Amino acid sequence: MMSFDDGMQASDSQMMTPPTFKRVLVAVDDASQVEHAVELTRRACVPGITEARVLHLNLRESIRGQRFTLETESTASYVVEATVFELRMAGLGASGQVRHALFDRAAETIAADAAEWGADLIVLGYQRRGELRTRLFGSVTLRVLQHAPCPVLVTSAPGRGRLHRVEQERHSGHRSSRRR
After folding, report:
1. Is 84 inside any structural domain?
2. What is the per-residue pLDDT across 65-95, written as a single tens digit (0 to 9) for each?
3. Are 41 and 52 contacting, i.e. CB atoms less than 8 angstroms apart?
4. Which residue of 21, 39, 99, 130 has the fewest CB atoms within a 10 Å radius of its CB?
5. Position 14 in a domain
6. Structural domain count of the chain
7. Residue 58, in any domain of the structure
């Protein structure tokens, strides 16, 4: 079992070495995700070995043939600059970029950027949609998982770490000992 809190855990009979990710793509949606994405990236990476690339998508909506951006260029740039700064403060080499993408093509753009750059790992900010909206409109996180050329880590929303574990157990058919 792999744990980024304490390094690797191994059974008594074998010792495992932690994976070394050389290129990590950190995809963040907004400034509220920076802290969590940086913390997860810091735990998964080795300073001096790992290079991180921050990707923020400035999403555009297409309505009647016209495209409208959902945020300003300065807001998009701020998200990238804040994340790059925090990663550098954590001792990781980091660069960043803002890319434009259509609203319904965000996941494919993240996966394509990871493949183009040669990423060994993708770190995603937490999902902001509720369960109903996810069922109606789909999930960027799930689509990235389907199209990703490498492993994907997803940060937990603040205060929801246990909830995600319970939902994963429910979906995988296992029953949590706390739920009855």
Report:
1. yes
2. 777 887 889 999 999 999 999 999 988 999 9
3. yes
4. 130
5. no
6. 1
7. yes
Do the domain assignments include residue 66?
yes
Residue 135 is predicted with a pLDDT of 60
Q: What CATH number is attached to the domain comprising 101?
A: 3.40.50.620
Residue range 32-47, pLDDT digits in tens: 888 888 999 998 888 8
pTM of the model: 0.73
Q: Which domain holds residue 60?
A: 23-172
Residue of 143 and 116 predicted with greater confidence = 116
Label residue 62 by pLDDT band (50, 70, 90): confident
Paired tokens of 115: 């493949």
